[in-house]
Amino acid sequence: MKHTWNRREFMQKTSAATLAALAAGAPIPALLSGCRREATSASMRGTADTVILLWMAGGMAHTETFDPKKYTPFQKGMEGNRVLSTFKSVPTVLDGIHFSDGLQAIGRVMDKGTLIRSYVAADMGHILHSRHQYHWHTCYEPPQTVAVPHIGAWIAKELGPKNPVIPAFVDIGQRFTLGEGEELKAFHTAGFLGNEFGPFFIPDPSQGLDSVRPPVGMDARRFERRNQLYNELISSSPVGEFGSDYQKESLKRSMEQAYRLLNSPEAKAFNLRTEPKASYDVYNTGRFGLGCLLARRLTEQGARFISVTTEYEPFKGWDTHENGHSRLAKMKKEIDGPVAQLIKDLAKTGHLDRTLVVVASEFSRDMMVEGRPDAKVLEQVDQPDVLSDPKFYGMHRHFTDGCSMLLFGGGMKKGFVYGKTADERPCKTIENPVRIDGVHQTIYHALGIAPDTQYEIEKRPFYTTPDGKGQSVPALFA
């Protein structure tokens, strides 16, 4: 029986895991040399060098986006169970494949990518967005006894930076000053791998340049004093008192990396003001759109893993607990043009061949089912059976049994559709289910990272996927 974790328990456990990670000492390679020998073989050289994760935070309904079902327009007094899609479906460039209205631009570039229609999210009992996001980004169900690395941190650690000046792992668009900020911090970390492999945060891409230069009025000498103070703070902090030498040195190396970027010509990539106006205007649909632009520029400069999020804030964005139809219409305007333009720009410059772009969300949504049909969980939405108000017209409940995902470039098939969901409620996965360990190992395989990569933590091996059992999905590769 699944534990019904609440947010307080979640934070208590993850905080304890962080302290445990600090005390765990340096990761000890265990069989790692063997993994690396395998990774240099012809089968593990990889088809990609860079990953861009476009994160639709909050639960993007598959039937309203990339897997539309029968459209039913709103009528006062209609039965909610009749509603499968609240948007008409529109054709894409692929014969017989339709997207939901509002995603025409992405539909026109699907000849360059793969559509997965069968992602199945984990059954973890009472649904919390932050717990499912933790699971998606780390491949581990929270809580854990150690601080688990984000997938971007694993990639930064195993492959290192493509350009030693550009941070290997960049996170764009998520703030931690609102909503479930502390819960989100729990997986935005390199965990036991060390701070140097953690994310370089850019909450607002329009102010990205401010992230790589000293504040106004701070000269080089004052910045040097700040750096010295930073080292002193490390020594007197909990890390200094309880952390291992490995963790302390990793913190210092992260500051050194930031200092190199500060003084490099590559820092101009963060300045979106230098982008030609015609290009800038296509991306300028808001913070997410500009995040896609910044991701493209950083890819061109050699970033290894970039995450761009629509940002998770409870009851906003894709978290459609009410006004689902009108909210999704707005979200589509924010993502459609920028995502499509990112793919076209990367293809035009040749970067898409070695860049894997992933569009994903923690789970889907359904009007009637909370969880999955055979594992329903506590209802969180007051959704009437009969719709008397347009605010109830949309996919409000959390649905984990059928989700859509897009993959572009990086060795993935072009114009390919994988998996299927039922056309009638419950619109669950009925062919080729894909779970999170398969997603992670598919990404690692594309990058040439061996499936048995592991470190010894707390005297036991810790793998990129639980127990090292995750397997890639060969059918997705060209």
Automatic annotation (TrEMBL):
Highest taxon listed in the record's lineage: Bacteria
Pfam families: DUF1501
UniProt-recorded name of the protein: DUF1501 domain-containing protein
Species assigned in the record: Spirosoma agri
